Amino acid sequence: MFILLLACIEAPDHDGIAIGNPPSVAARLAPVDGAQVTTARMHVSEVTAGCGAQLEMVTDVGAVDLLAENALPVPSSDACVMSIGASSALELSFLRDDGAQIQGAIDVGTLSLMAEEPVALTGSWVFELGTPGWLGEGMLDGPSPLAPGSEAYGLIVAALRSGSSLFADLDEDGQLSASERADGAWLQASAADDVIGTGDGDDGEDTDGDGDDTACPYGEDDDEH
After folding, report:
1. Could you list the residue range(s) of the whole structural domain that residue 171 is in?
2. Residue 98 to residues 101, 125, 128, 130, 134, Cα–Cα distance (Å)
């Protein structure tokens, strides 16, 4: 199973973080209402990033706890594509407001995020699986709401696939703050499933006037990122 992150939306302006730092991507589960998430983890086999045929890979990543401090090792590159290869389903456990405990394993399948230009993956980022409020009202009702084939299971898979994003982590704390969320996502979910390798991410256009068509999320100064 692969989670594909496709870079290249028009990037917001950011300042901070020195250029050349190896990229650090913290993976988080978006917050929910009406329940407490007590478990959210999966095993990741590889992380790939790049544009077109210029792809680099980090393998044997291991277990990722979306509720704890973590860092996905990501190749330092100008990325039109980043893929996270998950070797297990997403394990989820919830404590409902009525005290009931709900458990299940969600196969999120292939998730694609897209943008309009290559993004320089340096500095710190937060990948958020889902978007705040992705667990809709009533989704955890019933005796086995997370059973494959149930209505809730399908809704949760769709919400996680369609709502995930990558944000710049300007204060490098591995968390997504309100101001960082307000700055906007650099990569956002797309309905496309099979986009990796479909383009080279380079149309030859200098989008920011610096002679380089790669977007840098942290500003234009070569000494800062």
Report:
1. 2-188
2. 9, 35, 27, 24, 19
Residue 19, pLDDT > 50, answer: no
pTM over 0.85: no
Let me know if residue 194 belongs to a domain. Answer: no
**Residue 47 in domain:** yes
* Predicted pLDDT at 59: 85
Amino acid making up residue 157: V
Q: Which helix (H) or strand (E) holds 156?
A: helix 151-163
**What is the DSSP-derived secondary structure letter of residue 52?**
T
Q: How many domains is the chain built from?
A: 1
**Please, which pLDDT band fits residue 110 given cuts at 50, 70 and 90?**
low
Enter the DSSP assignment of 8: B
User: Which residues on adjacent β-strands are paired with residue 40?
Assistant: 92
- Domain assignment of residue 202, yes or no: no
